[in-house]
Amino acid sequence: MLFFKKAVVSALALLAAPSIAALTPAQMVGNIEMLTTKSKALQNPANSITLVNGPLIVIGLGPFPQIIAGFTEIVTITSTAITQMQGSAVITNPTDAKAIADAFRKFVEVHQVLLNILIGKAGLFNTVPIIGTPVAAVLRSLEAVVDTVALRIIDTVEVAIHKSTIQSNANSLSGTITVSINAYQGLSLKKRHTRDFTMIDA
User: Fold this and answer.
1) Distance, CA of 26 to chain centre
2) Domains defined for the chain, CATH in brackets
3) Distance (Å, whole) CA 169 – CA 50
4) pTM tops 0.70, yes or no
5) How far apart are CA 27 and CA 80, in angstroms?
6) Radius of gyration of the chain, Cα coordinates, nearest whole angstrom
7) Integer CA distances (angstroms), 9 to 6, 20, 171, in order
8) What is the mean pLDDT of each run of 10 residues along the chain (202 residues)?
């Protein structure tokens, strides 16, 4: 009977244990670097956007579907990282904190290059507003997870100088994401305004 009780207690303990282990600082850096790599990989497709191939999004071709799929993957990876960070220990080691801050800074730099390319390309499609809706939608999803993971990282890093750097970079990235959303959301709004004017003229 004693053995049975011990077995039950052990089983309950296993059930109560978290299913995902907390991340180490090295694993956090690895996750951030993965996001950087994924962002970098989308820069060439973004640069390849033209007035000719952009509208091919309506038939699932051209660079935009690849870019949207890439952002969706980044959102998924980031969402997983957010879950994995739950229960992670506060980072007080300056070396670990610097490694995380440096990795996040690099991610922000690479991601801002990508977003700025897309912002510049949006101006090509003032007369092709159908592009705006799907791109703005995935960028809004990106905004939500990036804001969340940045806050988690900031809350985890307790070395003041690196915490401040991460906060500053997070704010900068958030601003760029907002500009990119507005750039593509604006295309959809132009479509709506055009329709309204057409109805008035009719």
Assistant:
1) 20
2) 23-201 (1.20.190)
3) 30
4) yes
5) 13
6) 22
7) 5, 21, 47
8) 40 38 90 98 98 94 98 97 91 97 98 98 88 95 96 96 97 97 82 42 42
